[in-house]
Write a structure and sequence with these properties.
The structure holds two protein chains of two kinds.
Chain A lengths: L12 E5 L1 H8 L4 H12 L4 E4 H6 L10 H7 L3 E3 L3 H13 L6 H17 L2 E6 L2 H9 L4 H5 L1 E5 L1
Parallel strand pairs in A: 1-2, 1-4, 2-3, 4-5
Chain B lengths: L14 H12 L6 H28 L7 H11 L10 H11 L6 H19 L1
Helix pairs in contact in B: 3-4, 3-5, 4-5
The chains are: A alpha/beta, B mainly alpha.
Amino acid sequence: MTRRKKRQDSVPAHVVLDNEALWQVAGRLSRSLRAELRLAALTTGQVVLPASVMVECIHDRAAPAAARANQILRDAGTDALTEARAAEAVALRVRSGETGSVVDAHVAAAALAVVRRFGGTATVATSDPADITRLLDCAGDGAARGATGVLAL
Amino acid sequence: MGEKPGRPVSAHLDPALTEAAKAAVAMGLADSVSALTGEALYRELRALALGAALDEYDEQYPEDRPSVAEIAHRLAVVRRRPVAERPELMTVLESMAEVLSQDVHPEDLLFATEGHLALQDRTVA
């Protein structure tokens, strides 16, 4: 097959993985998530795996069952639930009336953080687009919110 | 703002790029030119590794491989391009990919499609 070359002037399209996205990466990728990951590869976007998603999915990178996921995620960045990230996640939950779970809040905060750090856009690949959208809508930073969106899985 | 210890390597960088990197360090936006260069290289390599992993995946599961039109459609959505709202976008992207190439970059396909739709709108008006 002919490999599509990256463009040097691309704006990065980052992808943040929620639980369902991680399950898919470990099992079988949907067409839509494949398209999103390809877009990240072509634009030098980051694939971000929030640490809390790893915990919720009991994702052990060293386990044999993680072999398939490791194939795709071998160079993905893990977003740690640091104090700063936790503070943003708390703010999102408070402003949204405690929408979603702790993991949802961390995922939304991770999406905002990757856009602030690297520019470009961030898409949260999630099976819960309503809660993630609600949390993102509560971002104090309008510019970062404008660059984030969701992909419903 | 010191350089961290590491193995010196020789790389031919565009002088303007080097000056811009030095300016970024002077402004406190980066720790050092080496750190900036290393991070950029790391990001590029990660993207290449992801692309290679997806190529392998495509070979394993060719039936669910997204077309360039589907990737360009997602690009329109994530960049919030006005054409993303148009119901005919996917059809036009597929037609344009037939004309250009299935190996065209999704950004080029989207730009070409936006141009085509803009021209179409003017003609109709």
